[in-house]
Structure formats: structure tokens, C-alpha cells
Amino acid sequence: MANLDLLQTSALNNSAWATAVPSSIKTTASDAQAALTANGGQSSMGQTEFLTLFTAQLKNQDPTDPVKNEAFVAQLAQFSQLEATTNMATNMSSFTSTMASSQMTSSAALIGTKVSVPDGPAVLSNGKSVAATVGLPNGADGVQLQVFDAKGILVNTQTAGPQKPGDMPFAWDGNDDAGNPLPDGTYRFVAKAVALGKNVTPTVSTLATITGVSQQPDKTMLLQVTGGKTVKLSDVTKIYG
What is the model's pTM? Predict the structure, then answer.
């Protein structure tokens, strides 16, 4: 029986492999990586390149040590799963961009409406009263509300008796403690209360008109309101027409 020249057979297989594989597909790990990264600087293999390489691998596998069918099936399954995941990520990115644009458009419709802004400015205009609410989740035995002008000077103080848990509404008429009307401008409310036997500083939310809408790079929507304050749309709990 003739001797089988494995070295010669291996050389022939290698030669056949080199001939069958297109010039665009490299046969060493370093060359393959260089070929993949040369296209736009991305280290990725498209469907066409994978199938070309996969077909060449089928045609030129070592007959003395053929790859099992299960291994080929596993390679196909892995590539299909990777391709599906990549497509899903691309679609999700496109969907997110579309939603961000839609949110920007819908948020623009809020311009001119009023929102409740936590710790927002109290804008006194044309002598009209300024509405606000004090957040009292545990209620209160008593509440004191102070009004400061733009210079930080206390101009008005109001007091209220026991309050149930929830938001306590109130309105400031724009007058000082002596009943004199104050000039138009931006003021600030500060509340103090006694709740569950402790002194607390509850949050005061004022009504402000939305004057503009903007979007941050991370797609966070911001609302510009009267008084020069900017608030996140996600922080707004009440919107009034």
C-alpha cells in the first residue's frame, strides 16, 4: 500500500485554501484583524464576509480532521444571534432618537401653560396675587410663610393653623406686612412648620408660566419658566392650562 504523504496533503490543502479564499479575506489572525479594521476603523465582519469565509472553510477543511457538523451549526447560530442583537441595538437607537424628537415637539405645546415649580421664584406682576402650595406630607401643627424680595429682605409674613397631610394652597397678595403694595419683581417664599413635634422646612411650589423648552445632550427635557428658573420636565408634578 502506498504511503500517505501527510505533509504533501497538508501543503496541497493550504494551497487550495489560499486559492479559494478571496484576496479580501486574510488567512491569518493579524491580517484578518487588519482587514476588518481598515474599513472605517471598525472591527466587525458583515454577513457577506462571514458567508464567504464560512463557505471557503467548508470547501477547504482538512480531510484528516474535518470539522463536525455541530461546530458549523454552532458558528451559524452564533453569527445569527450576533446579527440579530446588532440589528436590535440599531433599531432601538433609531427609536430613541425618534422618541426624543417627538418629546421635543410635544413639550413645545406646553409653552404658555403654568406648572408647579418646587422652590420656584414668585413673580409679582401688575399687582396680581401669586399662588403657591406648601408640601406637608405629615400635616402640620402650624405653618409660617415668609416672603423675601430680590435683595433677601423679609417683606411679608403669614401664619396658618393646623394643616392636614397634603399640599396647603395659599396666595400672596403682593403687599408687605403694613399692607402696602410692593413693586413688580421676583420674590422668594420660605415656609417653616411644626410637624410631628419637630421644626421642618417644607418645600414651597409656585405657579410659573413656561416660556421655553430645551433638550440636553442626554435627551433630558428642560423647561424655562418665568423668573429665570429652569426645571426638568420629569420634576414637574402639575401642569395647569
Answer: 0.54
Q: What is the CA radius of gyration of the chain?
A: 36
> Using CA atoms, how far apart are residues 74 and 8, in angstroms rounded to an integer?
31
Query: How confident is the model over 68-113, as pLDDT tens digits?
Result: 666 666 766 776 776 777 777 766 766 555 565 566 667 677 788 8
Q: Is the CATH number of domain 118-206 2.40.50.100?
A: no
User: In which region does residue 41 sit, left (phi positive, over 0), alpha (psi from -120 to 50) or beta (all else)?
Assistant: left
Taking a C-beta distance cutoff of 8 angstroms, is the pair 114, 207 a contact? yes
CA-closest candidate to residue 54, choices 21, 10, 19? 21
Helices 69-108 and 47-59: angle between axes, nearest 10 degrees: 180
What three-state secondary structure class fits 12? helix
**In the structure grid, which three cell numbers stand for residue 7, read together?**
505533509
Q: For the chain, which residues make up each domain, given as ranges?
A: 118-206
